[in-house]
TrEMBL record:
<protein>
    <submittedName>
        <fullName>Undecaprenyl-phosphate glucose phosphotransferase</fullName>
        <ecNumber>2.7.8.31</ecNumber>
    </submittedName>
</protein>
<keyword id="KW-0812">Transmembrane</keyword>
<dbReference type="Pfam" id="PF02397">
    <property type="entry name" value="Bac_transf"/>
</dbReference>
<keyword id="KW-0808">Transferase</keyword>
<dbReference type="InterPro" id="IPR017473">
    <property type="entry name" value="Undecaprenyl-P_gluc_Ptfrase"/>
</dbReference>
<dbReference type="GO" id="GO:0089702">
    <property type="term" value="F:undecaprenyl-phosphate glucose phosphotransferase activity"/>
</dbReference>
<keyword id="KW-0472">Membrane</keyword>
<feature type="transmembrane region" description="Helical">
    <location>
        <begin position="264"/>
        <end position="286"/>
    </location>
</feature>
<feature type="transmembrane region" description="Helical">
    <location>
        <begin position="73"/>
        <end position="91"/>
    </location>
</feature>
<dbReference type="InterPro" id="IPR017475">
    <property type="entry name" value="EPS_sugar_tfrase"/>
</dbReference>
<feature type="transmembrane region" description="Helical">
    <location>
        <begin position="12"/>
        <end position="32"/>
    </location>
</feature>
<feature type="transmembrane region" description="Helical">
    <location>
        <begin position="38"/>
        <end position="61"/>
    </location>
</feature>
<feature type="domain" description="Bacterial sugar transferase">
    <location>
        <begin position="259"/>
        <end position="443"/>
    </location>
</feature>
<dbReference type="InterPro" id="IPR003362">
    <property type="entry name" value="Bact_transf"/>
</dbReference>
<keyword id="KW-1133">Transmembrane helix</keyword>
<feature type="transmembrane region" description="Helical">
    <location>
        <begin position="103"/>
        <end position="122"/>
    </location>
</feature>
<comment type="similarity">
    <text>Belongs to the bacterial sugar transferase family.</text>
</comment>
Amino acid sequence: MRKTTGRYSGYIRPFSYLLDLIIINILSLFLLPESIGLFYNVFISIAWVVIALNIGFYEVYRYTKAIEILGKILKQYVLFLVFSFAYIGYFSKYSEPSETVEYSTIAMTLVAVFKFAVFYFLKRFRVVFGGNFRRVIIVGQSKNVCQLQDFFAENPDYGYKLEKVFHFDQDESDESISACFKFALDKNIDEIYCSLSDLSNTQVNQFVDFTDNNLKLLKFLPDSKEIFSRNLVYDYYGYIPIISMRNIPLDTSFNMIVKRVFDIFFSLLIIVGVLSWLTPLLAILIKLESRGPVFFKQKRNGLNYKEFNCYKFRSMRPNEIADLEQVSKNDPRITKIGRFIRKTSIDELPQFFNVVLGDMSVVGPRPHMVSHTEMYARSVDKFMVRHFIKPGITGLAQTNGYRGEVETNYDIINRVKYDIFYVENWSLLLDIKIIYLTVYNAIKGDEKAY
């Protein structure tokens, strides 16, 4: 089972944010008078991030054209200049427009130089060292397939490594499709490009199911005569239109930052306000009833199927099958204090440390123990889709009656359906609603909390 999705670097975008903020703040100290005030630096830092998020300043991909980057730079420059003048005109007595323009122009020029330097360095890095690349295959035999094949061959700086082209059409047998799927698994393929004009609806669904269940990206080469009813995402590689099948709101920088800020703020609130005094109290009660550690640590699968240590207050006596068997109703392994903290969901509170560490979110698909994840990945359709985002302490499925023990296939199938809905329809308001329902259910008492 594959554990990553593509050869992405999660450090490039945060590095770009940090570098640009350092540039605009240091230059303001040298190019603007001291009388303008330190609060100006705070204001322009926030303004810079807000502007960038709204115009997609850091939404630069390997297939983005240089002219598009230049357009983003000009938009950022104009709006940053407007915000600078707005602050100076409203809060400060200082009024030297030429110095403000000079500062903004020099700052934006340096930002642009570094932005293009990183962009072209990555292109060179992909060609010379073969890094930051993605393995891809193409399925079909239309004219668009040949164009995309040539595009990948002629543009190694984009970082796409074409492993194979599968030339089969709607009349091909299931054996050919199975061979394609086997190749994708054996060669650790990251992305699959399919020509829609060469595939039947059944075959398209087969590719959708395969990529969902194996954590791979599926993209389509559209036929100009095709009409789509879904809200699909269009990109262009050169002049070749590409369609992405699944739109995940948390893939965008703005949404990721909003969710991460909310996660950290909410988690610190719980850690300081609740866990700071509850932990020593529970530690005494847990230790008095049974020997063993206060915290229970278990390997679970998170974002991109990566394993992490999930923390809970220990609610069971130490046993050898804790990582293999789920807790069931009236389970003899549960202690008296354990039964109470499980019923009230207090045992889950240490996972707020997992949130601060970045392994989890406050809200998201609940992570399963590794042995169960591997079992469900083989038996439950689209189970792997839930690993496109971070797992959560609570989730949409849990607030709709699908928490705790999986007693039947119906339970896990519906849990996955709720998880996929959450992945494709995330919003901060939905997170707040789920947190409210979780607290409400914990106070009211959930019959599946045992």
